[in-house]
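Sequence in, structure out.
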Amino acid sequence: MRILKLTPETKNNILENLLKRSPNSYGEFESRVAAIIDRVREEKDAAIFDYTRQFDGADINAENILVTEAEIKEAYENVNPQLLTVIRKALVNIRDYHEKQRQTSWFDSKENGIILGQKVTALARVGVYVPGGKAVYPSSVLMNVLPAKVAGVDEIIMTTPPGRDGKICASTLVAATEAGVDKIYKVGGAQAIAALAFGTESIPKVDKIVGPGNIYVALAKKAVFGHVSIDSIAGPSEILVLADDSANPKFVAADLLSQAEHDEMASAILVTTSETLAKQVSEEVDKFVAVLSRKKIIQKSLDNYGYILVANTEEEAIATANDIASEHLEIVMRDPFTVMTKIRNAGAIFLGTYSSEPLGDYFAGPNHVLPTNGTAKFFSALSVDDFIKKSSIISYSKDALESIYKDVVQFAECEQLTAHANSIRVRFEE
């Protein structure tokens, strides 16, 4: 990996380079995505069946688009029993973590006849997109579905592209069933997002769409936002490791590569105060890349978006981590908990030598759907909050309103909204 001295110029160049990976930078695909969405809105099922034949090579129609109980039973017969056990263990951890995020309605009653409150309501129907093809991510199924289940969503619809044989990966079906998905449809890509956003003869319209996907899926979610809600427009995966000379270089190298293997646009960055560690990690990275199965993808990722930055001080290293606002942040330092209190921007924070990033991807419980491309400065991990909405409650008695009605009238008249003022005043006219 390249080793650079951390300077303001170095940092700015890296930030600019990382932003090139954002889905917002891929305008050349938007017209194609828009054409797919427009056709699905107009032709509905006919369009998604045709696109599935074109893009997935599968003959899907109204009779076989919905996954059947028989197909789910077959998936359970084919899935590795040990994997099923792990899925169930992870499910418990993820559910338990998200149950602590639950919110309840509240009401505040005062003696003067005023009742104020907030009514918390789960969304009625949510669509979960799950990638298919070469990628199989049962962990993403759990992470997207379980917060919705904990929130109390009435119906969870899942879409995922089928293989050429018209079937869905067994582990994906099993994870969806274990998590509590209500219906699973065999459709992927931008056409699946359009179907969820606007509805077809087979697929019902949802209130919100969540889940990762390729650039077409990301741009489709961006395009339908406003017609439905979405979780986020996710970019390529990224990790930043903050480390001092106490860190194990082999562990740090392994953790950096855990994200670099996702795809060629993934980012892996080490920020350290130790030149010795920087050189050791670079050497360990080279050793791992030589033997790992996805070495071509890893090497491209490191060549494009991999950096080892040597900072002068711990404060400079922390400031850089906050500026980059990485999806995953590992703190491998003598006092990681104190350093953590100085971190303002990160999707998920992993503390200490044995809190490796894949724990968050699969098993620990916190959600692995995280903000990318610097959006951790203002976005959070997917949570129960994403599947609820809040309504304000206001109730005034006559006496309560009479004591303040002139104040409201004055405010309305200040804004020259006389009908607003009249709506209050009319209640106290003789």
